[in-house]
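Recap from last week: sequence in, structure out.
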Amino acid sequence: MYDIEESLHEYMQPTGARINVDNCRAIALRSWTKTTPIMIIKYYDDIKILGFNMMANLNETEKKSWAIMTSMFRTHTQNAYHIALNLDNRIRYINEFILATAWYTTQIFPPPTDNVRQMNAATSFFIWMGAILNVPQSTLQLPKEDGGRALIHIMEKCMTYLP
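Predicted C-alpha cells:
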C-alpha cells in the first residue's frame, strides 16, 4: 500500500523541499487512530486550517467554528460600539465590515439558528446603542424604497452561500 511517508519522499526528491515535522500536525479521522505513525508528526484533537478549527468529528468542527465566529462578531460590535456613527452608517458598518466574517464561515458550514439569533441580538444592540428597540429588525431589513434601511437579513444571506 502506498503510504504518506512514501508520497512525501517522492515529492521531496525532485523538488528538494523538506518537511519541517515540528510545524506539522496530524488529526485522526474516522477509522484512523492516533497510534498510526506518520513520520514523527504529533497528533492533535483539533488543528487550525485556513481559520477553521478542524476536529475529528465534523459536527464538533461546525459547532466550534460557529461559536468562535459568533464570539468574534460580538467582540467586533462591542469594540465599535463607541464609534460616533449615525443610523445609516451603523447599518453600513454592520453590512460591509462586521458581517463579512460570517460569510467566510457560511461557505463551509450552514449557520445554526442559535448563532444567527446571537448575531441579530449583537446587531440590534450595536445599531440602537443599547437602547430599547424602537424599530424591529424586520423593518430595517426592508429596502430603502419600502421604508427600511437595507440591513442585511443574516439567515437569508447565509443561505445564499450554501450549495
